[in-house]
Design goal:
With 313 residues, the chain is of the alpha/beta class. The protein has a domain of 151 residues: Rossmann fold (3-Layer(aba) Sandwich), CATH 3.40.50. The protein has six helices and six strands; from the N terminus they run αββαββββαααα. Strand 5 and strand 6 form a beta hairpin. Helix 2 packs parallel to helix 3. The longest helix is centred in the first third of the chain and has 40 residues. The protein is elongated, with a radius of gyration of 54 Å. The termini are far apart.
């Protein structure tokens, strides 16, 4: 009897320890589920911009400088974002600005990348950047600026206004605006420094300078051909003697036909014009000529006596 009583007391003493173990196991089994849910909520993929068109610059090197000092703007919450705006700008510059030349350098500078919590619960983000092009001698030959500012009403279903999800979303929207603004500024103000993948100037650059970098020569005015009709008759070639001896008429070229004759002052006759009295030509005394015979009118027979057929003289 005493033995059974000791057994019951031992079991009662072990109950608190067993309850603790059961509760501990239940808490441990619930931890993986909570961890997965938290990971799903706080998973923020990095921004990628290599799927956009690349801007090939005619420089040998390209680097990024971040001058947006954290805390420089009072109330800045950019460092609380899963991916700070300055980090997103650096990734964009590395993905899209490509050095494709043989000399010179390009520097993309981040001047400001901040997020503020304004009155009324609105998030206000601002990005200020500029791109410098420097020649091989260290001379600054080109610069563009790109500025973006966006306000966003936070989605309270993703937490409070300053939640990581809201900061991530505002940064994403500002980066969309910056990609458009920066490309627009480069294509309009640095088009002479854009080249293709092979280092050749693009169509925009060709319109501004020649392919070898020299100033294209102005086209010379075309020299009109010499007008032979204006050459004086004295400079014209003399008539060939052989044509004069044979009586052959030499026809002057069409370009010199209008030149005044200097060999004869006799006025031209109108032999080529038709005769109003004898359109076919005057009758010739030489009746043996075939030409005059055809043009002479036929006349009646000579005067004489008519004889009847069958009569004698």
């Amino acid at each position: 009897m005493k033995r059974d009583r000791n057994r019951v007391v031992g079991m009662l003493m072990r109950l608190p320890r067993l309850s603790f173990l059961v509760l501990s196991l239940a808490a441990v089994s619930a931890l993986p589920g909570c961890s997965s849910d938290t990971t799903a909520v706080t998973s923020f993929p990095p921004y990628q911009y290599d799927y956009l068109s690349q801007l090939q610059l005619n420089v040998a090197t390209m680097r990024v400088v971040n001058d947006a000092t954290p805390g420089a703007v009072p109330g800045d919450e950019a460092t609380d974002a899963p991916i700070p705006p300055a980090q997103a700008l650096t990734q964009m510059a590395q993905d899209r600005l490509i050095a494709a030349g043989q000399s010179g350098s390009a520097v993309f500078t981040i001047d400001r990348a901040s997020i503020l919590h304004d009155a009324g619960g609105t998030l206000s983000g601002q990005m200020d950047t500029h791109l410098d092009i420097t020649s091989a001698t260290g001379q600054k030959v080109g610069v563009v600026e790109a500025h973006v500012k966006r306000d966003m009403k936070p989605d309270l279903s993703k937490g409070d206004a300053d939640s990581r999800a809201n900061l991530y979303e505002l940064t994403r929207q500002m980066m969309q605006d910056m990609n458009v603004e920066l490309e627009y500024q480069i294509r309009n103000n640095l088009k002479d420094w854009l080249v293709d993948a092979g280092g050749r100037p693009t169509q925009d650059a060709i319109q501004s300078q020649s392919l070898d970098g020299t100033t294209p020569a102005k086209p010379q005015a075309a020299v009109p051909p010499a007008d032979t009709a204006a050459v004086p008759a004295a400079d014209a070639a003399p008539t060939s003697p052989s044509s004069a001896d044979t009586g052959t008429k030499t026809t002057a070229p069409a370009s010199t036909a209008a030149a005044p004759s200097t060999t004869s002052s006799t006025p031209a006759t109108n032999d080529d014009e038709p005769d109003a009295i004898f359109p076919g030509g005057a009758p010739s005394s030489d009746t043996s000529s075939d030409t005059n015979a055809t043009s002479t009118q036929k006349r009646s027979p000579a005067t004489g006596y008519l004889k009847l057929p069958g009569t004698s003289n």
